[in-house]
Amino acid sequence: MTTHTDSLADAPCETTTTTSTNSQSTIKKSETDTRKPSVSKTPTSLKSRVKILWNNAVNTQIFKAKFSSNVPIWILGVEYTPRESSAGIVVQSSQSDAEPPHVIELRKDILSRPWLTYREGFAPLENGLVSDVGWGCMLRSGQMMAAQALFVHYLGREFRVDQSKAPLTDHRKILAMFSDRTSNACPFSVHNLLSFCAKDGVSAGEWLGPSIVCRALCRAINQRWAQFSPGLVAYLGLDCLISKEDIKDLMKQSGKRWNPLFILVPLRLGLRNFNIRYIPALKKCLSSRHCVGIMGGKPRHSLYFIGYQDKDLIGLDPHACRPTEDPMDLKTNLKTYHCTAPRKIPFTGIDPSLALGFYCETEEDLNNFFDFSVEHCGGPTPLYSIAD
Fold first, then answer.
1. Which of 145, 164, 270, 324 is positioned for an S-S bond with 357, CB 3.0–4.6 A?
2. Are 93 and 100 in contact, with CB atoms under 8 Å apart?
3. Separation CA 239–CA 291 (nearest Å)
4. Looking at the annotation, which residues are catalytic?
5. Distance separating alpha carbons of residues 112 and 108, to the nearest angstrom
């Protein structure tokens, strides 16, 4: 896969806002967001502080998720299965208490995915809030999905974090785009994304649904990110539909024949509860090399899903709270941006509102994605449809 590291090296520190003509950037709220928002309490309240301590504990090695060594595991298009020797015997670790080799490799992959969580102590939002604790979890899940698309775009899907070495400069630059500042150099900060959410009538302190976050991400990418060469454009698949013609129009608006494409598809898979008939199709999505994750979670508790094993989804939990940091500061330890303790929850326990994310680097990738979607995401219980 070709990665786009040169453009990050040449990227300016500041950008100016441009106006997109994409008609999808001015749509109204869809029925995908049906839950009422809740207003956050200040992060210094006793209740919030207890929640912070609990969530920080959950997201440590103390609560390390266990993986069956005999069942295949999928993480964003990569399968991890038990290795067999030439004699057909499953290879185990040389140490009796250690995990088998394929699970060790799996954990390296999970560790290398971006983990963006609650932060506190950032510049005040318009209503004075200095933390997103209690209300910003879906926004953080959306940030993780977008960051993963950028990881693949610039670093490649094979990128792995090596904590024994200094982080790559491009690694830091990608994470810095999500730093919680009002600067245009941070197009995906909480501050900037909320400015796009305001177009849908949502303000800081309110709980956001996946479709609103998808719209904010598309606006941020298409209006701010377009100035970075070779560029990345975002397409929002509304009403369970991805239109080939609309994607062509989007490319024309970008001024280029082709740009790598980030596709977001908000869905509601059930009325009050998740419809289990969609499980096979969701598994197919997570096993596709085009997939950059699922923005979803449990009711009122967002998670960023990156894979599955058998009946369980594997996700990163944004509910840990960290002080605001600048990833470009060489003193900043990037360990807080990479998770060692993924969460596992059953498919049957997820909220029906979620959003799928896909990345297509080339036109050939996009055509392959269309073929994949027709074969695996259509059928009698379709996740979404492809229209000419």
1. 145
2. yes
3. 19
4. 137, 317, 319
5. 6
